[in-house]
Design brief:
The chain is α/β, with parallel strands linked by helices. Helices cover 47% and strands 16% of the residues. It is built from 12 helices and 10 strands. Strands 5-4-6-3-7-8-9-10 form an 8-stranded mixed β-sheet, with helices on both faces. Strands 1-2 form a two-stranded antiparallel ribbon. The radius of gyration is 20 Å and the shape is elongated. The chain starts with a helix and ends in an 8-residue tail after the last helix. The site of guanosine-5'-triphosphate (GTP) has 20 residues, from helix 6 and helix 7. It comes from Sulfurospirillum halorespirans DSM 13726. It is found in: Cell membrane; Cytoplasm. Involved in targeting and insertion of nascent membrane proteins into the cytoplasmic membrane. Acts as a receptor for the complex formed by the signal recognition particle (SRP) and the ribosome-nascent chain (RNC).
């Protein structure tokens, strides 16, 4: 797992190495500040991190770790997936990596010998339905879909009902990332949430927001808008492998006060790894300090 997060942070670690070619035992806070800014931690946060460090000009690994770790206090290590079916609603703007992430998530569950049914409730674009169908085939899981333009809530309802009838463990429902306008989108998402609850009281059990990690801090505003619409439960950051902005996770965790549950580190079905803030922070600190973790 450790090497997996390293794969996702490869470009970020490369950028750190440009600033700091040799690892150090103690780091000058001015240099640390530069590294944190370069990895796309929002500036106010960098200032805050520096403020919470000991007053001396040079700081050691443990000092930095303690301060960085505090930003991930919302993380949960285990998912509350005891409900059957466990219903997840996946939300995010087009291109964030929603479809791919749904496939990866489904593949993960399958690897744990759990059954999965997908619901193609992004009925706004025909391509979205086709793309999810093609992934469902590739990873060999069932999918409920309808024609473009049909009611997405009906798809959500049918998917959950079908999963209950077939005793399926996991339902993952795709949603539209964009409609004609923002109000329509909000209304549609709220309706889907209501209808899920009608199909199975308490569903959806987890509303997951997909954020593109290459967008850095600008993803935060997007996330806030979705959070206001339907109150998100957890975040997945995609394309961490494609960016040198690996530090943006601090900004996202702090601004949204939500757990980051997985990160996407590639385009394949196995490229979704559970997010562990200790591994993430240690991997970054390993590229700065000679002292190893543990
Ligand atoms: N490198 C990398 N690429 C990713 C990752 N996740 C998704 N992608 C790519 O990002 C692109 C968009 O992903 P989609 O899953 O189609 O995104 P979407 O949000 O469903 O977007 P629409 O299909 O436009 O609604 C695709 O080319 C994916 O292969 C990731 O973790 N790493």
């Amino acid at each position: 797992m450790f090497s997996f997060i390293k794969k996702g942070l490869d470009k970020t670690l490369g950028a750190i190495k440009e600033i700091l070619p040799e690892k150090v035992e103690k780091i000058d806070k001015t240099l640390l500040e530069e590294i944190l800014i370069e990895s796309d931690i929002p500036y106010e946060l960098v200032e805050e991190i520096i403020y919470y460090l000991p007053p001396s000009q040079f700081v050691v690994r443990d000092d930095v770790k303690r301060v960085l770790k505090a930003y991930f206090k919302y993380d949960t290590t285990s998912a509350q997936t005891e409900q059957n079916p466990f219903v997840e609603l996946v939300i995010g703007v087009n291109g964030a990596g929603k479809t791919t992430t749904i496939a990866k998530l489904a593949h993960n569950y399958k690897k744990e010998n759990q059954s999965v049914l997908l619901g193609a409730a992004d009925t706004f674009r025909a391509a979205a339905i086709e793309q999810l169908k093609s992934w469902a085939e590739k990873i060999d899981v069932g999918i409920i879909y309808t024609q473009q333009g049909h009611d997405p809530s009906a798809v959500a309802y049918d998917t959950i009902s079908s999963a209950i009838a077939k005793k399926i463990d996991h339902v993952i429902i795709d949603t539209a990332g964009r409609l004609h306008n923002q109000v329509n989108l909000a209304n549609e998402l709220k309706k889907i949430v209501r209808i899920c609850d009608k199909a199975l009281s308490g569903a959806p059990h987890r509303k997951i927001l997909i954020l593109d990690g290459t967008q850095g801090t600008s993803a935060i505003n997007q996330a806030k808008a979705f959070h206001e619409m339907i109150s998100i439960d957890a975040i997945i950051i995609t394309k961490l492998d494609g960016t040198a902005k690996g530090g943006s996770l601090f900004g996202i965790a702090k601004a949204l006060e939500l757990p980051i549950i997985y990160v996407g580190v590639g385009e394949g079905k196995d490229d979704l790894i559970p997010f562990n803030s200790d591994d993430y922070i240690d991997t970054i600190l390993d590229s700065i300090f000679t002292q190893t973790h543990g």
